[in-house]
Structure formats: structure tokens, C-alpha cells
Specification:
about 270 residues; alpha+beta; 2 domains; 6-stranded antiparallel β-sheet; about 25% strand; elongated
Length: about 270
């Protein structure tokens, strides 16, 4: 086509014109542009897109050059911490998550074997509880839970990878366990580790004392399997599953934010939603 011949950008024009312009069947003027104008617009769009891509690539290179903090660029870590602080201030950590009927319970996949790769003698398992001063409060097996009110509920378990399930957890409230031990609420965090120290998490006090945060012994009506954290694990619907530590070997109360396995590998420390 000769470049001087016009092309129509919109629908067909009628024979009637307005101020010399053809009109559409609705009576509106039809915008007419030449092939040269189309090429100019296309070139401009291409250059704009190219500039955006270059800016994105440049930003990525800048991030890669930043010093790391917790295995991610420091500016991203600051963003994590800002979000954590914001939601901590405006969130209500005593709120309860939705519960479901027992017959709505579903299986939950084994997703993570840190701290539970090797089987242990469940009869020989013991958990140590340590106070703010570093001294042991108590050490024992499942008898430490004797006499506490059992809780049996179905809540949603969310994985940081994007999947979820509705397991039925049976156990006791962590808050009741703490009260039994006579631990004063003058601590800010709770640190937990597996017996071999291979997996460890830190949690804020408010989430740990939530009425739905449990020390769990049974899953879907059956005793926990070793890969699901037997004989005792944590379960809370208020954090992603990475915080629900399996096979607890140590509980420690502290005012210093504890180290956390996945936070050290670039994930958010809080892991809430």
C-alpha cells in the first residue's frame, strides 16, 4: 500500500462527513491515521517497553549487588520487617480462625522432614522447657500434658507454598500448658527446637497463647506418625505451616527474638497472614 493512502482504525465510515471527516454508523467522526503514523506509534511503544525492561533489569542488578540480610538483599528484608511490624500493630492475634465439622477433615501431606528424618524411640522421647533465666522449668514426656483439657478441632492448615488442607488436630492448648507450669507472661517470644536441633522456630507470645494454638498428639483421630511429628508437635491456624514445628524437643521462653529456620533462608520471620 502507498504510504499516502489512509487506513481506518475503527469501523466502517458512512458517506457523510463532519468537518471533512468520515463518520461511523453512529455518527461519530472516525479517526484516520496513515501507515507512517502507525509505524511511529509502534516504534514508540517498542521503545517504551524496552526502557521498562531495561529499568527492571537494572533494578534487579542493583538488588543483586546489595548486601544480604538473612540470605536476601537488605532492602527486601527491610520490606519484610515493615510488613511484619504493620500487621503486628493492626492485627488481633487473639482472634479465632474458622472451624469446620469433624467429617470435613482432610489428609495433610508430609511436607518437610527437617528434624524428623530419622525415627526415634517414642517411649524415650522427652521435652525440655526452659525459662527466661535459662534454667530448666521441667523435663518429661507426654505425662506433662496429663489432666489438661483436650481440644479436638478442624481448622485450615496453610502452606507457604500455596496449598492448604483441613486436618483434625487433637491436643491441648499451649496456653493451658503454660498456665500449668506457672510461667508468668513476662516473655515476648517462644523458641522451639526438634530434639536433634535440625529444625527450629520462633513465635510471638500472643500467637502462642491464642486459644487455637495446640500441642498436638493426634491427627485425624489417630496418633501422630513420626513424619507428622510424633509424639508431640505444634499446630496453629494463624501461621503458615512452617511454624508448626514437629517433634518438639525444646520449648524456651525469651525476650529476644529467636532464630528461625526458614527466616534464615530468606522467608519472613512472622509467617502470618
Amino acid at each position: 500500500m502507498n504510504e499516502s493512502n489512509p487506513t481506518h482504525e475503527t469501523g466502517p465510515a458512512t458517506d457523510d462527513g463532519v468537518d471533512g471527516l468520515p463518520t461511523s454508523h453512529l455518527g461519530d467522526p472516525v479517526v484516520v491515521r496513515s501507515a507512517a503514523e502507525h509505524r511511529t506509534r509502534s516504534r514508540r511503544s517498542f521503545l517504551t517497553g524496552l526502557a521498562g525492561a531495561a529499568a527492571g533489569f537494572g533494578g534487579w542488578r542493583v538488588l543483586q549487588g546489595r548486601p544480604e540480610d538473612g540470605n536476601i538483599p537488605d532492602v527486601l528484608r527491610r520490606g519484610y520487617e515493615f510488613n511484619e511490624g504493620l500487621w503486628t500493630r493492626i492485627g488481633d492475634r487473639s482472634k479465632l480462625a474458622p472451624t469446620f465439622a469433624l467429617d470435613e477433615a482432610t489428609d495433610i501431606r508430609v511436607n518437610g522432614r527437617h528434624g524428623v528424618r530419622d525415627e526415634i524411640d517414642l517411649d524415650a522421647w522427652q521435652m525440655r522447657v526452659v525459662g527466661l533465666d535459662g534454667a530448666a522449668i521441667t523435663t518429661g514426656g507426654l505425662e506433662l500434658l496429663d489432666g489438661l483439657e483436650p481440644v479436638d478441632h478442624v481448622v485450615e492448615h496453610k502452606c507457604i507454598e500455596g496449598w492448604s488442607a483441613k486436618p483434625r488436630w487433637t491436643g491441648v492448648r499451649f496456653a493451658d500448658f503454660v498456665q500449668r507450669l506457672g510461667v508468668a507472661e513476662d516473655y515476648e517470644y517462644v523458641a522451639m527446637e526438634t530434639p536433634d536441633g535440625d529444625y527450629y522456630v520462633g513465635m510471638d507470645r500472643e500467637t502462642m497463647l491464642n486459644a487455637q494454638t495446640l500441642l498436638v498428639t493426634h491427627l485425624n483421630g489417630e496418633p501422630l506418625t513420626q513424619l507428622h511429628g510424633a509424639p508431640l508437635r505444634l499446630a496453629t491456624p494463624h501461621k503458615y505451616g512452617v511454624k508448626s514445628i514437629k517433634r518438639i524437643g525444646l520449648i524456651r521462653f525469651t525476650n529476644d527474638r529467636p532464630r528461625d529456620f526458614w527466616a534464615e533462608r530468606g522467608y519472613t520471620w512472622d509467617a502470618g497472614f
